[in-house]
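Lab notebook, bench 4. We co-purified these components, and the gel suggests they stay together. Before we commit to crystallization screens, I want a quick structural picture of the whole thing.
Request: model the full complex, all chains together.
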Amino acid sequence: QTVVTQEPSFSVSPGGTVTLTCGLNSGSVSTGSYPGWYQQTPGQAPRTLIHSTNSRSSGVPDRFSGSILGNKAALTITGAQADDESDYYCVLYMGSGIWVFGGGTKLTVL
Amino acid sequence: QVQLVESGGGVVQPGGSLRLSCEASGFTFNIYGMHWVRQAPGKGLEWVTFIRYDGGDKDYADSVKGRFTISRDNSKNTLYLQMNSLRVEDTAVYYCAKGKKIADKIYYVDVWGKGATVTVSS
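Here is the predicted assembly.
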């Protein structure tokens, strides 16, 4: 069974930089997985940040960037702000129309 | 702007059925694929199903295959999710989402609705 892995939690200081990762329990993440990233605050619907590894959705500030680091997809937030405190989910394309989300990373800004 | 409004959620007993609807506005519905994604209470996101813009292609997560059916009525700008043989573990907020094509037959989850709550309980 394919499992998409994310750090359960992470913390960053205001103004700092943090990199969240998204991997596979077996195998490597590549651009062919079309990795995407979503931000969700409690009680709200998710918001799309990044698709296709590094393409920002409309209105997303350039403090958010996506990449492939080694065998994982990565979301980097530079100049972290208080309202970046959220849950972040990655998603990978598995082929045959199937997408699988990671378990999410709870980001604390303090 | 894009708006997606889900309806039809509620409480249902295990083994029962429910149909969710998602009314779309602010974009040309009949040229976009659409997804359903769910989130169990206190848990992460789970992709459920996708339908191509013309209803010709449908994909399902293994957890719902054979029990859930996605469909759409382009004349009504509405997406549906028919859920049968419901289980306690299907309890979740169900989000309707607009797909955006990024490659041949590949549509990512782009814009999200606010969600509809489904509770399966006896």
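Chain A touches chain B at residues 34, 36, 38, 40, 45-48, 51-52, 57, 87, 89, 91, 93, 96-104 (CB under 8 Å). Worth comparing against the SEC data before the next meeting. The two ends of chain A are 36 Å apart (CA to CA).
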